[in-house]
Write a structure and sequence with these properties.
6-stranded antiparallel β-sheet; globular; 2 helices; alpha+beta; Thiol Ester Dehydrase, Chain A; about 20% helix
């Protein structure tokens, strides 16, 4: 299954400037997802990270991987993001950064489901620029109900 930006916006609650998935290239339900993030010089973080040599922050690469993982999770659960819950990071293990991601790069987000137990998803995630590995990590994510007394 391929998802364009319109479908992604229906699935994820994220919006500019923190929406970090532009397209889903492949989705094997219950197993894996391959998504795309076009890295543009117009990204707001490049103003300060770093003005003399712009590099995408590693935490945002991990966030892009988590957003792809959320799309896979929502497909598995046959649901979309909603106003009653939030999808959170529960853990990040073994994060390694292998090459910088720069303006003009296309970041390919490969995420595979490792396991799902008691509402906690564990994923093996890799981000690629072409054939070069940029980042890899194991991600744990879960959904939690929003306390209505704390919402804006």
């Amino acid at each position: 299954m391929i998802m364009d930006i319109h479908h992604i916006l229906k699935q994820l609650p994220h919006r500019y400037p923190i929406l970090l998935v532009d397209r889903v290239l492949e989705l094997e339900s219950g197993k894996s997802i391959k998504a795309l993030k076009n890295v543009s010089i117009n990204e707001p973080y490049f103003v300060g990270h770093f003005p003399h040599h712009p590099v995408m922050p590693g935490v945002l690469i991990l966030e892009a991987l988590a957003q792809a993982a959320a799309l896979l999770s929502f497909d598995i659960l046959k649901k979309s993001s909603d106003q009653e819950s939030v999808y959170y990071f529960a853990g990040i293990d073994g994060a390694r950064f292998k090459r910088p991601v720069e303006p003009g790069d296309q970041l390919i987000l490969d995420v595979e489901l490792d396991r799902m137990r008691a509402g906690i998803f564990k994923f093996n995630a890799k981000a690629w620029v072409g054939s070069e590995l940029a980042c890899e990590a194991q991600l744990m994510c879960t959904s939690r109900a929003i306390d209505p007394s704390k919402s804006a």
